[in-house]
Amino acid sequence: MNEDENEMDEEPKQIKITPIKHGTVIDHIRKAQAMKVLRILGLREDDIDSIVSIAMNVDSSLGKKDIVKVEDMELIEEDLDKISLVAPEATVNIIRDYKVIDKHRVQLPEMVKGIVRCKNKNCISNQNEPVISEFKVIGEYPVTLKCEYCEREMKGEEISENVI
Ligand SMILES: [Zn+2]
Fold first, then answer.
1. Does domain 111-161 correspond to CATH entry 3.40.50.740?
2. What is the mean pLDDT of the chain?
3. Spatial CB neighbours of 138, under 8 Å, sequence gap ≥ 6
4. Distance 140 CA to ligand 1 centre (A)
């Protein structure tokens, strides 16, 4: 019997993420940001078929991190832009047949269009005009956006709360 498999009376210090066959693994999410990533992706109990696993406070060489695993779903560019707003240092791994076929860091775009709603209710982008919200990214830590129409600045929680 392998001693390592005997977990009696031992608190596992690290959660091992089991491999998935197809899907997306979002790694290196800063500690305690996993729920925000889920929110950004719109993965709610009601409208999801995929199996989603979350590991929070996982030990890594760079400190604690969160990991989100979404089975049978490959994220598209628009999803990644959204993720970068709440987890700018996340790594995205696309998995097919248990192999990582694509791995890259999310990149904070220079401009964010049509993803976030301006917090200023009187902003022209919130009226019934056919105007798409548009923000310039003016800060990375924390992510800070500035509305192109009303110049209102938004950061952190305000951004994740206003993701469309
Ligand atoms: Zn605005």
1. no
2. 84
3. 144, 145, 146, 153
4. 19
